[in-house]
Amino acid sequence: MKKNIILVGLGPHSKRIYMNYFKKHNIQPKILIDLKSNEEYAKKYLIENGFDDTLVWTLEDKYRDYEELPEKKYKELKNICDKFEITHIISSTEPKAHNMYLKFALENNINILSD
Asked: Are the beta carbons of 32 and 113 closer than 8 angstroms?
C-alpha cells in the first residue's frame, strides 16, 4: 500500500522522532506544513537533510490556534492532498493546533496520527 505523508510541524520533537525515522527508512514526506514564520528555516532544514522533494506549505501565524482551517486554506490544502494522493498526516504541533488537522483529515478520509 502506497503511503504519501504530510508532516505538520518541524519542532524539536518532530525532528528528533519523525525526521530521523524518515531518514533511517528512506521515506520522503510529500509535504511539510508549518507556520509562515518558519518557512525559510523549514526549507533550509529539508535541503540540508536530504528532503529536497518535500513541498513546504505554510499557514499564516495568526491561524495557529484556530479550531479549523480557514476556508481558503482548507481548499488549498485539499487540492494539494488530491494532487499528491496524500494517505497519511502526522500532526506534530502544539496541542492547540491539533483540532484543525484532525478535522481536515477526518473529513477527507486521510489517516492521521496526532502527537
From this structure: no
Q: What CA–CA distance (Å, rounded) separates 74 from 69?
A: 5
CA-to-CA distance for 50 and 96, rounded, in angstroms? 30
3-state secondary structure of 109: coil
d(CA 94, CA 92): 7
pTM: 0.94
> Is the CB of residue 100 less than 8 Å from the CB of residue 67?
yes
Asked whether the beta carbons of 29 and 20 are under 8 A apart, the reply is no
Q: Are 36 and 59 in contact (CB under 8 A)?
A: yes
User: What's the pLDDT tens digit per position in 33-66?
Assistant: 999 999 999 999 999 999 999 999 999 999 998 9
Instruction: Please enumerate in sequence order all residues whose Cβ is within 8 A of that of 47, keeping only pairs 6 or more positions apart, or say none.
Output: none
The three-state DSSP-derived secondary structure of 50-96 is CCCCCEEEEECHHHCCCCCCCHHHHHHHHHHHHHHCCCEEEECCCHH
